[in-house]
Amino acid sequence: MLGSVVHLVRGAHVGFVLAREGALALVDPAELPPHLRLVLRIGRMLERSGLGVGAGPLQRALTRLGPSYVKFGQFLATRPDIVGMHAARDLETLQDRVPPFPQETAIRVVEAALGKPVAHLFVSFSPPVAAASIAQVHKAHILDVDGTERVLAIKIMRPGVRERFQRDLQVMRFMARVVHALSPKAERLRPREVVEILARSVMMEMDFRLEAAAMSELAQNTKDDADFRVPKPDWELTARDVLSSEWIEGIRLNDHAAIAAAGHDAKALGRAVIQSFLRHAIRDGFFHADMHPGNLFVDPTGTLVAVDFGIMGRLGHMERRFLAEILLGFILRDYKRVAQVHFEAGYVPAHHSVEDFAQAIRAIGEPIHQRKADEISMAKVLTLLFDITALFDMSTRTELVMLQKTMVVVEGVARSLDPKLDMWTGAEPVVRSWITRNLGPVGRVESLGRAALTITDVVSDIPDLAQRLRRILVRLDEAGSGDGNRLDAFARSERRRAIWSTVALWGIAIGALVMAFR
């Protein structure tokens, strides 16, 4: 009970900040039941004047609420399917920058994580060079056993950040339950699922051993790529709270003047950005999902280098084939094939017509081919495609939404380097190479091999599955007599939950009003 009161107070504070910064204006009243429309009207009365300029309402509110909510906003920026495109664009510009914590604290974290004094681990250890809500980065020199000196980037977890995130996540869970109980229509936004996905994402991001593993996997995938590389993690100097990796001497891709002064080919870099991303997504099924200019460098050799691997995306074989074939279909104007790929993947229900779907896709594709190649946005094509598929009951695919959102960022970076970049000509070699390799004779033989292994596994599991089914049926038979009592208890529990959720929401609204008039 006390925990619920604490969550209620903190939820009221969140609601007050959202209302004051105008974030409630993004909520459509038509989607709400009458009692929630009243709460929304009360909240809109708290908006402060002069909100029409500067940052967007969600950006302002989440920045005021602190690092956990900034991270939540950055996560939601990758999910326009949940919050809508307008809110997602507002959240894209959230800046995860905070003052660094003291050097003495950083040294204590490193020594506790690695079990040795900093003076024994490094030849030198600099003050912080960058800081964010979860961690900050230091530059260090290390002496190898052969006498070689190397430069490392040391990423250090901010003390107390896990506890704060856990506390704020409990409040988010509480508020998600309230929203679910009071507005069944809001369940299409899956508030509870969204919070749990965020929780898993943040918890993974707060274990630097997992980020080092992502860095290592991407490095292995790209070891033969001539125009892209990944810094190597130093596993001996990496722990849950400390990540050590190769220091990158390079120029950020948003520093166009420095790139030109260093003599790098900006057009080649733009092409490398888009082709590298597509190779990772289509060829490897594992891609950097946060490729903004601050995470991309060009080194002295002209090679593209990525850093910060806290957010990664994965695509299965089916999703990679889907992406490759729809891109090639648009390049070749084969709209029937693009439609068939959607149906073969099971993304569009079978009761729809392939021909009708192909006609809808043609409405996207044909206007594209009336324009110059360097004016066509690949990301916009995918966005329009997902809009069309919504009309045909296409289910939301989280991994494809993340891919599309990342492609928007990647395309922006590539075009900032070369405004005349032909995205489709750049994409075609990567797409054709994958299709030739995976859908040609060699790929078909490999697919048959995978299918044979799957069938063998299923056949070998049949005896175990039969035993499990028998045990389940016995338990169901034994439990049958008590079902009536259980259903009555469940109904009473749900009624109590609905009553308390209503009280909680009104408590949040009243608490926000109290804060407003202090």
UniProtKB/TrEMBL annotation:
TM spans (from-to): 498-517
ABC1 atypical kinase-like domain mapped to chain residues: 94-342
InterPro entries named in the record: ABC1_dom, Kinase-like_dom_sf, UbiB, UbiB_kinase
Alphabetized UniProt keyword annotations: Cell inner membrane, Cell membrane, Membrane, Transmembrane, Transmembrane helix, Ubiquinone, Ubiquinone biosynthesis
Coiled coil: none
Pathway assigned in UniProt: Cofactor biosynthesis; ubiquinone biosynthesis [regulation]
One Pfam family of this chain: ABC1
Signal peptide: none
Alphabetized NCBIfam families for the sequence: UbiB
Family listed: Belongs to the protein kinase superfamily. ADCK protein kinase family.
Protein name: Ubiquinone biosynthesis protein
Organism from which the protein derives: Methylobacterium goesingense
